[in-house]
UniProtKB/TrEMBL annotation:
NCBIfam families: excise (TIGR01764). This is DNA binding domain-containing protein, excisionase family. It comes from the Bacteria. GO terms for molecular function: DNA binding. Residues 21-70 form the Helix-turn-helix domain.
Amino acid sequence: MPVTINKTTLSDPPAAEHDHWMRVDAVATELCVHHTTVRRWIRDRKLKAKKIGGTVRIRSLDLDAFIEANDA
């Protein structure tokens, strides 16, 4: 269903609404790699991550960008 804001119709909600934070183990499971591999990518600054409340989290949009950049 389209959203109308100030007489402007948007077919999709803003990208931020589709964004969510993932834990290292969830990213590892999704990519079928070990969690230490994900941590190495973070350490080597290949994958963006933030420490939130004592745990490392990866934004789903950053994960998508990482996958696109490293998809051969």
